[in-house]
Amino acid sequence: MQLFYKQYSNVGKPLIILHGMFGQQANWSGVAKAFSEKYAVYSFDARNHGQSPHASTMPYSKMAEDIAQTMDTIGLSKADFIGHSMGGKIAMQFALNFPERVNKLVVVDIAPVNYESGPNQELSALQKINLDSLSNRQQADLVLQNNGVNNKAIRDFLLTNLKRNSEGKFEWRMNLSVIAKDYPLLKSWGEDTFRQSEFMGQTLFIKGEKSDYLLPKYTDQTLAFFPKAKVKVISEAGHWVHNENPEQFFKVVQKFLME
C-alpha cells in the first residue's frame, strides 16, 4: 500500500517518523521540523490512519510492507527510523523484515511484547460517539470525558480524527471499525513471521519516566530481538514522550542518530 507522507526537508540522511495508534503524521510536525535542519525528514500516515488509504486488516507484517512500498515510491533505499507506540512496533517489524533498509532505529515507549492493557478506555469511548447525531466537537469531547478519558490533551489528540465530509456531516479520518476489529492484533507481538530473528543495527528505546509501557521485565525479550538495544528515560514524561518533554526527547534522539 502506498501511504500518505509529508516531506519536511531534503538535506542530510533520510529519517522516517511513524506515529502511534489513533495518530497521524501531523501530530509529529513539531518533532519533524526540529530534525529537518539536519535530516531529510519524512513522516508517514499508517494504513487506516490520517490521509493514508483504508484497508480491511492491519497486521504489522503488512504495515511493514507498506513502509517498504512507500520508500520505493519516494526512492529511499535506507533510512533512520523513529517509531512511537504502534509506530514503534511497525518500525521493529520493518527492521526485522527489511534490516538492510534500516540504518538506526529509535523505538519510543513500546516493547516487542504482547500487551494485555493499552488504550482500551480510549477505544471504548471513541466507539460511543454517535457521528449521526453529532453537531459539534464539544459534544464529542463530552462523550469522551463521560466515558473515562479525563486527560484533556488526550481528548484533543483523539478528536483530531474528526472531520466534516462534503455534506457537512462528521466522519472519522481514521478507520475506527478496523482498528477496533484488529485491536487485539495491534496489542500483540510475534503473531507475524519475521524474516530475521534479530536486528543487529544500533537501536535506542525511549521510555517515558511516568509510563508503564517499557518495563524492566521486558528486557530479555527486547534484547533477544534487538541485541544492541540501549534504553534512555525521558524525565517528567508519560507515553506521549515527544509532546510532554520535547526538548529532552530531541536532544537524546539527535545524539543517538549522530553518534
Description of the molecule:
It is built from 11 helices and 9 strands. It is α/β, with parallel strands linked by helices and 259 residues long. The strands form 2 sheets. It has a 7-stranded mixed beta sheet with strand order 1-3-2-4-5-8-9, sandwiched between helices. A two-stranded antiparallel ribbon has the order 6-7. Helix 9 links the parallel strand 8 and strand 9 (229-234). The chain is globular. The mean pLDDT is 95.
A few lines on this structure:
The protein is of the alpha/beta class and 259 residues long.
Q: What attributes characterize this protein structure?
A:
259 residues, alpha/beta, Rossmann fold, 2 domains, 7-stranded mixed β-sheet, two-stranded antiparallel sheet, 11 helices, globular
Q: Within the largest sheet, what's the order of strands?
A: 1-3-2-4-5-8-9
| CATH T-level topology of the largest domain | Rossmann fold
Helix run count: 11
What is the H-and-E element order? Answer: EEHEHEHEHHHEEHHEHEHH
Label the CATH architecture of the largest domain. Answer: 3-Layer(aba) Sandwich
CATH homologous group name of the largest domain: Alpha/Beta hydrolase fold, catalytic domain
**CATH uppermost class of the largest domain:** Alpha Beta
Q: Give the radius of gyration.
A: 18 Å
Which oligomeric state applies?
single chain
**End-to-end separation:** 33 Å
**Tertiary shape:** globular
Low-confidence stretches: none
Strand-residue proportion: 15-25%
**Overall tally of structural domains:** 2
Mean pLDDT: 95
**Total E-strand runs:** 9
Largest sheet: 7 strands, mixed
- Based on helices, strands and strand pairing, what is the structural class? alpha/beta
Helix content: 25-40%
